[in-house]
Design brief:
The protein is built from 16 helices and 19 strands. It has helices spanning about 10-20, 55-60, 65-70, 105-115, 165-170, 250-260, 260-265, 270-275, 300-305, 310-330, 335-365, 370-385, 395-400, 405-420, 425-430, 435-445; strands spanning about 1-5, 25-30, 50, 70-75, 75-80, 85-90, 100-105, 120-125, 125-135, 140-145, 150, 155-160, 180-195, 210, 215-220, 230-235, 280-285, 290, 295. The protein has 3 domains: about 1-40 and about 105-180 and about 285-360, FAD/NAD(P)-binding domain, CATH 3.50.50; about 185-280; about 370-445, no CATH class. It has about 450 residues and is of the alpha/beta class. The longest helix is centred in the last third of the chain and has 31 residues, at about 335-365. About 40% of the residues lie in helices and about 25% in strands. It binds flavin-adenine dinucleotide. Flavin-adenine dinucleotide binds near residues 12, 307 and 312. One of its GO terms (biological process) is kynurenine metabolic process. Belongs to the aromatic-ring hydroxylase family. KMO subfamily. Pfam families: FAD_binding_3.
Length: about 450
């Protein structure tokens, strides 16, 4: 049997193991953490992620879609919470498309179960990658408790060990390897809204809630147990930044004045605040993603991005779809498939990194801006009238598998048109007139 080693049994590593197992490989995954499935995940809070079409496609390809759908909640739009407590629902698409809230830990557990169920996948927990031989495609893993070292057979080695990948670190020491790491100004803290006593959700279940406040924002995604996981994305510095919120009183004052309706739903705010760390957000860009036709990076190891488009995991899952496509096309010629994979994915990784940063501005600032909302309304009307001619950027990224770079370019072209449309006289009153719709059609050419 053919052998493959994977470093990291996170979301992407577990899924990639299923792909390799289905190709007939004996797969050994080495994971530095203990087995998540043995920890008590149902203890209330869980960190959740938005799963969208690219992720679903990768899961469906290996028959995992139905299993995951059982533990996911559809969110059909954004629910915007203004400072005065008023709510606005912004549907994600004209077709009723949804993004899906899934528990990160829950999804990871299901994926590990499904990987092991293939019969030819073994996961070795508490094994940290400490050395990589890029020439032979083998790696050394150190057992957490005993310190015992395991060296894998030469062959294929995949680094799915996340943003601070040990496999990538070995590649960084080779000639002409490009690497860039950038921390953004903002960090995040997980908070929560508990369920009602009867287990129902306290606010609309099928929406992604956003409290946009200019320089920062709070969001909330639903969980199956009736709770919401909230994330405060917030600068470290500044008058009310994380560093300045250094007493309970300041935290409470900040929430009362900035997110009054959310504050009412969070009687345990201070417990969460102290219990959960403030975490940083990093963007990683690097190239190449493969070495010697034997070693390859997938997921955050090759392209860690900020979470504002909800695409990090989706992009990592799409790496699996695209890699698989090239293995199919090359009849499993690994060196060629690896080259094709990195050449296709790199520009798309860069594009989603750029889009994710831009979407932060949209989420925290523009979702509360009447002009922005009017623009979205015009786009929706035009897309409905001419479905083949216009697709909002968000829909291209979230509800299709159009390559990210192509979606980004098309989005810029459409934005330039919208800038001119928004400058038309009396656009607020005429936005749905034939004149405006014809002008858009003409500008599209
Ligand atoms: C706040 C936040 C919100 C997010 N929201 C979304 C969202 O809504 N939608 C979305 O698509 N994405 C989202 N993301 C991004 C998403 O979490 C990541 O893109 C995704 O987890 C990447 O998966 P991965 O398997 O590549 O890496 P990881 O999930 O980081 O997994 C890496 C694994 O490797 C293991 N490991 C690390 N080092 C070693 C080593 N030396 N040896 C062995 N094992 C090792 C780790 O323990 C881990 O299990 C979000 C991220 C953040 C921070």
């Amino acid at each position: 049997m053919k052998n493959a080693t994977i470093a990291g049994a996170g979301l992407v590593g577990s899924l990639w193991a299923v792909y390799l197992a289905k190709r007939g490989y004996k797969v050994d995954i080495y994971e530095s953490r203990t087995d998540l499935r043995k920890a008590n995940l149902s203890a209330g809070k869980s960190i959740n992620l938005a799963l969208s079409d690219r992720g679903w496609k990768a899961l469906e390809k290996v028959g995992l879609g139905d299993e995951i759908r059982k533990v996911a909640i559809p969110m059909y739009g954004r629910m915007i919470h203004a400072l005065d407590g008023s709510l606005t629902h912004q549907p994600y698409s004209v077709n009723g498309d949804a993004i899906w809230s899934v528990s990160r830990g829950g999804l990871n557990c299901v994926l590990m179960d499904l990987a092991e169920a293939q019969g030819n996948v073994d996961i070795h927990f508490n094994h940290k990658c400490t050395g990589v031989d890029l020439e032979t495609g083998s790696a050394t893993f150190s057992e957490r408790n005993s310190g015992e070292k395991v060296m894998t057979e030469p062959g294929l080695l995949f680094g799915t060990d996340g943003a601070f990948s040990a496999v990538r670190k070995a590649m960084q020491r080779t000639d002409r390897f490009n690497y860039q790491q950038e921390y953004i100004e903002h960090g995040y803290k997980e908070l929560s809204i508990h369920p009602n006593e009867d287990g129902t959700h306290k606010i609309e279940k099928n929406a992604l809630h956003i409290w946009p406040r200019g320089e920062f924002m709070l969001i909330a995604l639903p969980n199956l147990d009736g709770s919401f996981t909230c994330t405060l994305f917030h600068p470290y510095g500044g008058e009310v930044g994380f560093d300045a919120l250094d007493t309970d009183e300041k935290v409470v004052d900040f929430f009362k004045s900035t997110f009054p309706d959310a504050y009412e739903l969070m009687p345990h705010l201070l417990d969460d605040w102290h219990e959960n760390p403030t975490s940083s957000l990093v963007i990683i860009r690097c190239f190449p993603w493969t070495k010697n036709g034997k070693v390859a990076l997938l997921g955050d190891a090759s392209h860690a991005i900020v979470p504002f488009y909800g695409q990090g995991m989706n992009a990592g899952f799409e790496d699996c779809t695209i890699f698989e496509k090239f293995l199919e096309e090359t009849n499993e010629d690994w060196p060629t498939a690896m080259k094709l994979y990195e050449e296709e994915r790199k520009p798309n990784g860069d594009a989603i990194a750029e889009l994710a940063m831009r979407n932060f501005v949209e989420m925290r600032d523009l979702t509360g801006d009447p002009k922005f909302l009017l623009q979205k309304q015009i786009e929706r009307k035009f897309a409905k009238l001419h479905p083949g001619k216009w697709m909002p950027l968000y829909a291209m990224v979230t509800f299709t598998d159009i390559p990210y770079a192509k979606a980004n370019n098309r989005g810029k072209f459409q934005d330039a048109i919208m800038e001119e449309i928004m400058a038309m006289p009396n656009i607020e009153d005429n936005w749905d007139s034939d004149e405006v719709m014809s002008a858009m059609l003409e500008k599209l050419g």
